[in-house]
Amino acid sequence: MSIRLYDENRNEINSVSLVLDGGFGDWRIRKVLIKNDDPTKYYTDLVAAVDNTSYSLGFMAEGYTIKLKASETAPAISEWNLVSPGNSVSLEDIGEAGNANTTTYVPIYIYTSCPANQQPNLISGINLILSGIERLA
Length: 137
Known about the structure:
The protein is mainly beta. About 5% of the residues lie in helices and about 40% in strands. The chain contains two helices and seven strands; from the N terminus they run βββαβαβββ. The protein has helices spanning about 50-55, 75-80; strands spanning about 5, 25-35, 40-50, 65-70, 90, 105-115, 130-135.
């Protein structure tokens, strides 16, 4: 895939980092963007998901959560309450036949939380998986 990941300022990134305060319990929301960088391809049936293999390895059992939401605007907390932890989200197509569309950024919001009274810990290796159909423009 020629889809790249960007931060909310449209700078290309390779990963997303979040710092949470486990002493008092904490939550963070981070917006990331995806964009097609190949003028010869377009993408349909896109789905973003948290890699359940890495996510479920003790992470949820300790009370941590990760949720995804596809939205043009930041979701309200009441909207996040309706999203299941470890969910997947369908994304809009990027381009169409005859139009690769290398200018549109598709937003994904990531909600992460941790409970209180957690020991300092570095949790890494939780992957965001993007799947879809790559087509020639």
